[in-house]
Amino acid sequence: MEQFPIFLNLNNFPCAVVGGGDVAFRKASALLKAQAELTIISPKVCPELKQLIDDHHLTWLNQNYQDQLIDNMRLVVAATDNETVNAQVYAYCEAHKILINTVDSPKYCRYTTPSIVDRSPILIAISSAGMSPVLARRIRATIESSLPQALGEIAEYAGSLRTRIKQAFSTLDQRRTFWENFFSSSIVSRFRQLKAEQKEQIVNDLIANEQVQGEVWLVGAGPGDEELLTIKALQKMQLADVIVYDRLISQKTLDLARKDADFICVGKQKNYHLKQQEEINDLLVRLAQEGKKVCRLKGGDPFIFGRGGEELETLVEHQIPFQVIPAVTAAAGCASYAGIPLTHRDYARKVVFVTGQNSKAGDYPDWQALVRPYQTLVVYMGLTRAQLIKDELIHHGMSKSMPVAIVEKGTTREQKVYVGNLDNLPQLARDNQIGSPALLIIGEVVKLANTLNWFNPDELTDETSTFNTYIKP
Ligand code: SAH
């Protein structure tokens, strides 16, 4: 270990920032967050720093740096752009046992400031010992995105319960179990949504050791590339006790979920029957009734051809609390990664999402409405109906030469984009033995695929994504 981490209490701790520019302003702001008793030393200061000085009634010594100005300081930041001055400040501080940090200059530092994730009172500090602040900042961003925003409030709330829990449970073991259950409960996952009396109820149930009600999160996992997950989706995946997922969800996506969660694949296949959907609905209800936090992970967006609505109706019937986390739908993901803008001022003012599967026999779309000019048509689950789609669209007046793209396994390492026209659509699908999932994009905008094509699936190597090692509990 190059350095020893400490958290410093700055109350009644005289600190000085030497310098008056942007960097000095940032350092001064950071010190003030921890209530430092602050002096600024600089003949000139930038407007932001001047504002800070006025707002916080700071001491401003508007003169050039001289050693005796920092005599009474206990911590100093050298933030001038003059290396000689910085070196002088450092030498003086070292000689007089004052903590010194020199911005961007590890050799003139007694201490360095870490990158922080601030969910006060929870504070996470990341240090690269001054070797690579950018790396530390990237790690910080990763941690930042994986922690609930309300973490600080949760910690404070937990703090407010401590005496009560001590009285309620006599042994350390009992108390530990309580806190384990507390932090797995919906108090954490829904802290800002719950009213005070609801939190109180959960705490009372936990104290009485009663079963806490479970809940279901209907979470969209996006079209494939796991880095397209939303921050919320990731958080839910990491909090869940059970992950109930569809066949379309990739292993790489599942790898980001809580390691010790139970994983249940409800692998829906093409032509699945209603009964299977009912079984899924019942499974969700049963798990929630057992008190589990269930992450129902669905490909793309849960409300776009995902039957998410049906699953929720069953939950409502059984009064099970739920949340819905939206996501990048296949149309948006595949179009972006294939370089096909779904709308374009010259080619399409409208975009229509349709499914190629009909829920009842004879339940056909309004083909006429799908053949309007300046419109992009995106067909989900349409590959096996390519012949019918071609025939009907042409029959209703669409040009045989209308550009068409088939995007196979969009946004993944195996993405392939096949471009043709409406007339040869069925052949395009047959000749290339396209696998599932695949999406059809029909419209003039497909012409742009050649020029706007930017995505190289080979670049989605393990290395690119392993940098983003999300925190797994
Ligand atoms: N809820 C999902 C759609 C579910 S229907 C969403 O919002 O994206 C399943 C269909 O979505 C598939 O048959 C296919 O047409 C399309 N699809 C989903 N992911 C895809 C992908 N990565 N590449 C191509 N098509 C995809």
From TrEMBL:
EC number(s) given by UniProt: 2.1.1.107, 1.3.1.76, 4.99.1.4
GO biological process per UniProt: methylation
Limits of the Sirohaem synthase dimerisation domain: 150-205
Catalytic reaction annotation: siroheme + 2 H(+) = sirohydrochlorin + Fe(2+); precorrin-2 + NAD(+) = sirohydrochlorin + NADH + 2 H(+); uroporphyrinogen III + 2 S-adenosyl-L-methionine = precorrin-2 + 2 S-adenosyl-L-homocysteine + H(+)
Residues holding NAD(+): 22-23, 43-44
Residues the record lists as binding S-adenosyl-L-methionine: 223, 299-301, 304, 329-330, 381, 410
Keywords, ordered alphabetically: Cobalamin biosynthesis, Lyase, Methyltransferase, Multifunctional enzyme, NAD, Oxidoreductase, Phosphoprotein, Porphyrin biosynthesis, S-adenosyl-L-methionine, Transferase
Transmembrane segments: none
Domain Siroheme synthase central span(s) in chain numbering: 124-146
Renumbered residue ranges of the record's region Precorrin-2 dehydrogenase / sirohydrochlorin ferrochelatase: 1-203
The UniProt record lists the keyword Iron-sulfur: no
Pfam family, one: NAD_binding_7
Modified residues (Phosphoserine): 128
Record's function text: Then it catalyzes the NAD-dependent ring dehydrogenation of precorrin-2 to yield sirohydrochlorin. Finally, it catalyzes the ferrochelation of sirohydrochlorin to yield siroheme.
Name of this chain's protein: Siroheme synthase
Naturally occurring in which organism (per UniProt): Catenovulum adriaticum
Taxonomic path: Bacteria, Pseudomonadati, Pseudomonadota, Gammaproteobacteria, Alteromonadales
